[in-house]
Amino acid sequence: MQYQFIPQEYQHLEHWYIKFAKQRYGAHKSITKNQPRKDKLGNLIEFKMTFEEWFKIWHESGHFLERGNKRGEYCMSRYHDIGHYEVGNVFIQLTTSNTSQACKGHKWTEEACKAASLQRKGKKQTKVNKDPDITCILCRKTTTPSNFYQYHGENCNHNPDQIKVTCPKCNKTGGKNQMHRFHFDRCTRRNKEGKNNTPTTSRPFSKKALKNVKEANKKRAGKRSKQKVIFMGVLYESLTEAIYCNNTTRHLILKHPSFKRL
After folding, report:
1. What is the DSSP string of 182-247?
2. What is the pLDDT of residues 67-90, one digit of tens each?
3. What is the pTM of this model?
4. What letter does residue 13 receive in the DSSP assignment?
5. Which distant-in-sequence residues (6+ apart) come within 8 Å of 209 by Cβ?
6. Which of 134, 155, 157 has its CA nearest to residue 144?
7. Which of 49, 100, 106, 137 is the most buried if burial means most Cβ atoms within 10 Å?
8. How many Å from the N-terminal Cα to the C-terminal Cα in the chain?
9. Spatial separation of the C-alpha atoms in residues 244 and 159, rounded to whole Å
């Protein structure tokens, strides 16, 4: 039997093309028959198309080889999700649009909600159709697609086109996102004018933490000589106590002009 709907590029593969189409047609027909469903009006959905009619609709859409149930693929839908699969009541659209159309205007009854809740109770949710991890071609780092496109992609340290910014206080240069996220609010070095920044005290340590530091200093007193220090006009029993009291780092305290050892 000759079919006039076969594309020219598949004329030499007529046998394979028709065999593949008949398999898809049989699968669609058997699913409708063996798994009966109801439309929005409560009527049973039937399949009332011959193979020639079904194949012609798919061919005219131009998406026969893109048929499927995944994102970006196409399926045969019914207008307003009502009626049977028959000529004049079906068209081809994306599977995502078909799912949206089926759920639009649907309201769950209290009985349906309770039944769904009981069915899922005690079951662990698993990720279905999880996208595979992406590996950066520059640094070979592997991560999930969401993290890659949100954080890593253009911000990879090995990317020559990465947008870079410079800190106005310490002239440190780095990637735009990393500098805004980690450096700017925490920069405690000298600015361009040469003025000193006061170490941060936004999160002072509690009395219990200071007590623990003093007890640790007493335990270490026998092992090494304990040296008192002066930092910003305040006398501390040790350098460690000065670090904890000012919530800063050892490096910044040692470079500060007000730091003295006694």
Report:
1. IIGGG--S--TT-PPPPPP-SSPPPHHHHHHHHHHHHHHTTTS----EEETTEEESSHHHHHHHHT
2. 888 888 899 999 888 889 999 999
3. 0.40
4. G
5. 244
6. 134
7. 49
8. 104
9. 38
